[in-house]
Amino acid sequence: MGPDSGPRSRVLTGAGLDRLIAVMAEEQRGEWGSKIGFILAAAGSAVGLGNVWKFPYITGENGGGLFVVVYLVCIAFVGLPIMIGEVMLGRMTKRSAVGAFRKLSGERSLWQGVGWIGVAAGFVILSYYSVVAGWALQYVVIAAKGEMSSGDPAAMAERFAAVAGNGPGAIAWHVAFMAVTVGIVIGGVAKGVEVAARVLMPLLLIMFVALLGYAMTLDGFGEGLNFVFGLNTDKFSASSVLEALGHSFFTLSVGMGAMLTYGSYLRKDDDIVGAAVAITVLDTVVALMACLVLFPITFTYGMEPTQGPSLVFTNIPMAFARLPGSTVWALTFFLLLVFAALTSAISLLEVTAAYFIDELGWSRKLAVPLCGAVIVLLGIPSALAASSHTFGAGMEEAIGLNWFDLFDYVSSNWMLPLCGLGISVFVAWRLGDEARRVQFEIGSTLGKLAGAYVVWLQVLRWLVPAAIIVIMLHALGVFEALAG
Q1: In this structure, what CATH number is given to the domain that contains residue 69?
Q2: Is residue 299 scored above 90 in pLDDT?
Q3: What predicted TM-score, i.e. pTM, was given to this entire model?
C-alpha cells in the first residue's frame, strides 16, 4: 500500500470532521491588527447618523441639560455594561452572533434565537439606514457643485423634498452607498474594516473639531452651551428619562450583534473593559460635539432646535450659505455625515456577512456581496417611501407607517431591545454560574478587581434587564394607557 492509503487516509466524517472544521476556522479567522484598530472600528460602529442629528434633536425636544445628564447616567449603567458583556461573548467564542450562543449553550438551544435577532436586525437597519446615507452622499455632490449658496429656507426645504422624493434617484444613491460599504467590508477585518476605521474616524473627529471651532465664533454659542449643559427642567418629564434610556441603548450599537462580532476578532490578551470604555467615551464625545456644533448655529440664525432630519438637511446648509466659503463648510459637513454613516454601515454589514462566513463556511468574497445585494433589495421600499410613487400607500393608510418608518420602528423598538435583553440575561444568569471563567474572560481591568466585577455582574443581572423591559413597555404604550 502507498503512503497515503490505510486508516489514516480515510475521509473524516462526523465529530472528527466537525473538530477539523473548527480548528481550521480558528486558524483562518481574521483578527484586528491592533487594539486601537478595534477601538476605532467599534467606535465607528457606534458613531453614526444618530449622533449627528438624532441626539441633538431629542435633546432639543427634552429641554437640554438635564436630559443630557440623565443620558450620560444611562450610558454608564445600561449601555456600557451590555457592551462589555457583548464583546466578551464574541472574544470568548470567536464566533459571530448566532455561533456564539450555539457554542456556549448547545446545538439545539433556544438561546441561538438571540443571535438570530441580531443578524436580522443588521439586515433591516442597514436597508433603511443606507437610504438616509444615500441622501447625505447626494448632498456631498450638491455641495461640491456649489449649489447651496441660497440662504432661503423655502429653497432649502424644496431641495430636500426633491432629494428624498425622487424615488429612482434615492434608489441609485442607496445602491452607491452600499457599493462603497461592500467594497470596504470585502477587504476583510485587518485590511478592510480596520484600515477604513483608521482613516475615517480620525477624519470625522478632525472635521467635528473644525466645525466646533466655527460654532464657537457665533453669537449663539453661549446660548447653545447653556442649553446643552445648563440644568434646564422646562421640558423634562418622565418620558424624557425613557427617551434618554432608549437612546443610550441604541447609540452604542449594542443589541445588534455588532459588538459581539467585532469582539470575536479580538486577541486573548486584549482588555475588553478598557476598550469598551474608550468606545463609549468616543461615542459620547461625538454626540456632545454635535450638539455644540448644531445648537449654536440653530440659535444664531433663529431656527428651531427640534426639526429632526431637516436640522441636518435644511437648517444647517442654510446657515452655511450665509458664510464666506459656504461651499467648503457645506462640503465638510456632509462628508462628515457620510463618514459617520459609513463607519456604522460597515459594522452592520459585517454582522450579517459574518454569520454566513462562520456558520455556513462561505468565503468573504461571496458572503459580503450577496448580503449587500439582499440589503439593497430590502431597502428599495424605504427609498421609495418618501417619493411621489406612493409605494406602499395602502400599508401607510392601514397602520400609519410607511416602509421606512415601519423598519425603523420594528428594529429600534423590538429587535434591538430583545437582543440586548437576551445578551444581558445570558451573560449574567446563564454564564453567571461560571463566574471564574467570565471573570477571566472579561479582561485585565475588571477581571482583577473582584468588587468591580461583582458590581458589573449585578448591574447586568438586575438593572439592565429592568431598564430594557421599561423601554419595551414604553414602546407598547403601556405607560400612556395607565396614565390615561
Answers
A1: 1.10.4160
A2: no
A3: 0.82
